[in-house]
Fold:
Amino acid sequence: MARQLSLHDAIRSLPPRVARQYRVVPLSRDAQGAVFGAVDPHDWRLESVLSRHADGPFRVVGIAQGALEQALQSWYGPTGDLHDFIQSQPSQRGASLRLGDALNSAGAVRFVELMIRAALSERASDIHLDPGRGKPRLRFRLDGILVERPAPTAELAQRATSHIKALCSMDLGSCTYAQDGQFSFSGADGAVDVRVSVLPTDQREVTVLRLLTDEIGRRTLAGLGMPPRVQQLMEMIAGSPHGLVIIAGPTGAGKTTTLHAVLRLVDASTRNVVSIEDPIEIRSPDIRQVPVRRNAGLDFANALRAVVRQDPDVILVGETRDAETAGLVVQSSLAGHLVFTTVHANDCPAIFQRFSELGASRTILAETTRAVLSQRLLRLCCPLCAGNGCFPCEGSGLRGRQAVYECMPIEGRVESLVAHSKRPAEILAAARDAGFRTMEEHAAELVAERRTTAAEVRRVLGRSGP
Ligand SMILES: [Zn+2]
Structure:
């Protein structure tokens, strides 16, 4: 594993013009020196070109053209621009705010734009701009993990926060209470909604931006990593008139993305598809999406009551977390609707326990539930360095994610046990006889195929890992 990678040093050591011309990028640095990745590692010119730029010994390994494009795009594109901009800023002196200084506020506008462009090009889900204790931090969330990016000066960070608040029409005068907002950013591939949260800390305000890109919302079940057998079952259920599908997993496990991919299998031209979400993160043109608005009295339960009066065929209830919603979810599916929902539970057998705790009858649950699923997101081995660690994957050896699933159809003996047995182990045993495979087994398969690592599986699936 590569240690102490300095991205900026590496980028500075090899100018973008040279990188493009010779199709080579800096990958990492280890005890033997710098490692470069080249599309044609045997190109005779590389030796002399790289010896002028590498600081000490180096070697060249082969990488795919696609991987090179990705690295050039990320590191010499928007992220490189962000680095250059930060470097060009005068270092902070006392961080006094000179309000009305047009040049400074133009700098903040430029910084916010470069920051969002860089995050989008790196496929980050969130941007964290943190004032720190006199030393600001900028971090991007990539594949679920926060990674450091070049930090602005305290003054620039504060101006950027003000600019972001202005974009969302927030109260600019106040730094004493939490504020939420949203604005639209025009990125390279069209407009992107940015959801903003500003929270005052004992220092200054922390700003978190969530980038609601369409990219993930367009992924198919196969693209998300769902095994073919489970896909076939979801296709069948999506075409049926009624029933209930419950999906379990912690926050950030990709449950909503899976449900939206399943909803896209429903023929929305002939059926009324309605979702209730908190908040809406994936916009689907074919379905009616209702955001939960608690301060307007519209929680999941109230929204669901209103939705069933709108002649729905298919309903997505973003999350079932209280007894009232659980009751309504089960009732709606019994009343002839096809209902999808998520619940906080660890695995498939735990879903029934959770619904029982919320007051749902086991007999009715067994009758109406067509399938339960559980999922987690695993980071995949980096395509640039095949797991050895390089600059683009921050030395982790992992880049990009896919889901691992377990899916339990509720039929036959499993159905009668869901109705009558209180023991999850008994339900699990019956499901296994019918071919049930756990998330751990799905994950072990990815490890065997060298698509992810055993350490990543342990990180995500914990003690229950293989
Ligand atoms: Zn890598």
In short: Residues 1-5, 92-100 have pLDDT under 50 and may be disordered. Residues 382, 384-385, 389-390, 392-393, 397, 399 surround zinc ion (CB under 6 Å). The first strand starts at residue 24 and ends at 30.
